[in-house]
Amino acid sequence: MTGAVRMINRIWNTFFFAAISVLTGVGAASAQSSSGVGQPYNGQLGLQGAVTPVMQEITAFHSMVNIIIIAIAVFVTVLLLYVIFRFNAKANPTPSRFSHNTTIEVVWTVVPILILVVIGVSSFKLLFLQYEYPKPDLTIKAIANTWYWEHKYPDHGNFTVSSNMIRDEDMLRAKMGDDKFDKKYGDLEGLALLKATFTDARPLYAAKGLVRQLSVDNDIAVPVNAVVHVLVGSNDVIHAWTIPSFGSKVQAVPGRTTATWFKATKIGVYYGQCSVLCGKDHSAMPITVRVVSQADFDRWVVAAKAEKWDEARKILLAATAAAGKKKVALAGSLN
User: Fold this and answer.
1) 237 three-class SS
2) Which of 41, 59, 97, 283 has the fewest other C-beta atoms within 10 Å?
3) pLDDT in tens, 109-127
């Protein structure tokens, strides 16, 4: 019950803040500044921060529609209250006899049409931006598997980066060693094992600059300000390649190739996940994209093509270290 009360209170506070922000004209700016960029944060309601032109337009469209929705809701509520109190039987014992008002009828027909035209024009503008692909500087093939991602770089020899989620057990085994891990947790199973490893591993993520349930063993990299085309496919069932801060979300369908594009304008680490229910480990298919300088990207490509993954990881960690210090690791919760 306590958790439910906290959630209701959080939703109410967020809605109240959003309504006040929109009505005072600072809704879009406040939402943008308070949203996590590249990753979610605990208690977040709303969109992640934008780092691509597409996501910036999605955020602007989202804010515009919210302003319209809240304005209509407020107007209708005020009008309804006015009618209730002004025209009840006690306050207005002798009701008017007219049944038509041409001006009002024209207004309530034309204004909704204009609102829909504004939304429609903005919507089509956004759709054209999403699906008119500019000339690519880099092409990546994203291939979904149950349950991990493979990314190929056909412009650079078609080398493959396999990415698996880093789990609590992986973190603890790396720190303690297999023998100590088995000795401490070997007698536990099920939920007891899950809670014990979660509690002990949680501090390790922040210490290593990782994000629980979003970090992977091998990140992929793209150059900053490069137009990247992503060709998406699947080897088994339907998945989805999704990076919220890029505004990219496209299904990975067996036997078909779908596509998306992005142009990341800020160096940093950006997380995503499979967003189509694909089986028991659906939640274990994160995507980590590191946006780096062209020089760092070229160095990473050399290491990745040689399958020197430890060196490749060090290059990307160093290239995004400054951006990583500004992030707070998302530890997650079992509550």
Assistant:
1) coil
2) 97
3) 999 999 999 999 999 999 9
Measured distance CA(191)–CA(109) in Å, rounded: 58
Parse the chain into domains and list their residue ranges: 2-131, 138-166+210-324
Give me the CATH code for the 138-166+210-324 domain, please: 2.60.40.420
b/e code 41-71 from CB counts within 10 Å (16+ = b): eeeeebbbbbbbbbbbbbbeeebeebbeebe
- Using a cut of 0.70, tell me whether the model's pTM lies above it: yes
pLDDT at residue 6, as a whole number: 55
Please give the pLDDT value at position 322.
73
The amino acid at 161: V
- Ranges under pLDDT 70 in the chain: 1-36, 323-335
Distance of alpha carbon 137 from its chain centroid, rounded? 24
Q: What stretches of the chain adopt beta strand conformation (E)? A: 138-145, 148-153, 159-163, 220-223, 228-234, 239-243, 248-252, 258-262, 268-273, 286-292
Residue 297 · residue 155 · CB < 8 Å: no
